[in-house]
Fold this protein.
Amino acid sequence: MIKMVLEGGASAREYVKLLKERNREAGRKVENAVAEILENVRRDGDRAVRMYADKFDGGAPETLELPREQVEALAEKADPLFVESLKKAAENIRDFHQRQKQQSWLTTREDGVLMGQRIRGLARVGLYVPGGTAAYPSSVLMNAIPAKIAGVGELIMATPVKGGKANPDIMAAALVAGVDRVLQVGGAHAVAAMAYGTESIPKVDKIVGPGNIYVATAKKQLYGTVDIDMVAGPSEILVLADETADACYLAADLMSQAEHDPMASSILLTTSAQLARETAAELERQVQTLSRKEIILESLKNFGAIIVCASMDEAVGFANELAPEHLEVCVRDPMEYIGRLDNAGSVFLGNYSPEPLGDYFAGPNHVLPTSGTARFFSPLSVDSFVKKSSFIDYTKSALLPQADDIIRLAEAEGLTAHANSIRVRKEEA
């Protein structure tokens, strides 16, 4: 069911290399299909969106935007206990992200120079929420709450409506998180509509949120027309464990990611061969009772692995090389490793900080870099929804003493008009 690499060393390194390559090739067929959808929506607007809704979603809705009263009516159908849990999670998410908010600033110098930075939220943001194999109300919270804290002017959510039925849980999450408008359309055509604007769908400045390979490819191709959060690949979990870890917990956590997608990656790095064998046995036992058993089994077979490392130093090295989306550290003293784990989207320390805690409730964002991009990307945050402008105010008396230096730098680059802009002010004096 899952690949075992017991000898570590070169064999482990070979498998790590294989994992790094899993997302390297984007399907040419998907790229071409998405490009056609984007062009059709850009050219034909609402008509193209409706055509693709008929084709992919089982029929176009009467209106592309779901009226507010209908959003509220649908939300009322959600389980009240579920809504209470949503509100508790939202409170934790707001508390965490509120701490990220930055203020505009201004500084003055003795010579009268003023300089500063203005920070404000984007005018309009589009939030994509999947509605296919699984619906994710938690993604609504994780994307919408930091956007609202950042001061985004208008937040528009797009989600597919299969068979004319919107998901009440997603609508409830939209109200809890402060979403302003809801579009009942999904897929690459929804992403295109928000990027280009149509007769009934306004153009946004940025598109965030997860989706299938068509949605992800659309976001990638539209980057530059709009900003995007990141190009997300399949979900990943990497677990570092020593002999003190609980195999039952480890197996459960590995499967919590495997159930997302047959392309998801679930890896255990351990120094204990006994723990490796016990975890493999727990996987076999626990998977039998899970509703997404077939997806889990396919994921573990294709991209799962239990690797026995010669030392924790080797395991840490592999972890930094893989730069996983989620990294669990199930060892005797997890804080010992926090300063050594440089490449990870989110780190979960100890046996009682499992990955689903971060996905749903703790507060840190669950929109994380995948496919090794944690080497240079950060999780979604309040910063993802703001833009910054600097400003400069020099007086004449402050500029003139610097004139020769500026002219010299400009002329060294061959930009004589730049130099002239300074020179005419110097000569006037």
